[in-house]
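hey so u asked for the seq, here:
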Amino acid sequence: MHNNYRNLNICIFASGTGTTFNAILKAKKRGKIKSEIPLLITNNSKCKAAEIAKRNNMNVIHISRKVYTDHSDQTYSNLFLSALKKHNIDLIILAGYMKLIEVPVVRRYKNRIVNIHPALLPSFGGKGMYGMNVHRAVIEAGVKVSGVSIHFANEMYDEGDIIFQKCVPVSDDDDEFSLQKKVLKLEHKSYVQVIKMMEDGLIKLG
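ran it, structure tokens below
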């Protein structure tokens, strides 16, 4: 891995609709970020994120326990590690990836795996706290502020060091759907901002 922050090789991990992934690709096309994005890894080969990657002539690798049922933990982890090594990946961006990262991958890419969470951690995080579940919990708690948290991923859900947070107000008439729209718009801007800060060396990578 090289440490030229202006020329990172990014791998996206995604499982779903790919809206955040698409926002990052658009930022790349507009010149807002300089990094290359040669690879998408997904656990769901039919997801929209995989379609977006293929449309953009990116390499797409499908790695799932449903496919590699007979692999030992180490052999399974090596599928990720070999793909990342082959594409000379410096930074892993989780964009709606619904699985915990394998421990050997976390260790190999310590402070180089970044996740975004649609609430202000450490509140409203942990297992099962993703997507609409988070926004519903925020509304039910009656808090007046939500937002996004960007953090380095470790072996536990939503527990890595927080590197960026930004807030949005929760209005009295918000429900989980209107709050999701507010937060998603902020997610897209924030992720691009953090990647740019990493390129400029303002956020130190492992």
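The beta strands are 9-14, 36-42, 59-62, 91-94, 113-117, 145-152, 162-169. The radius of gyration is 17 Å.
lmk if thats what u needed
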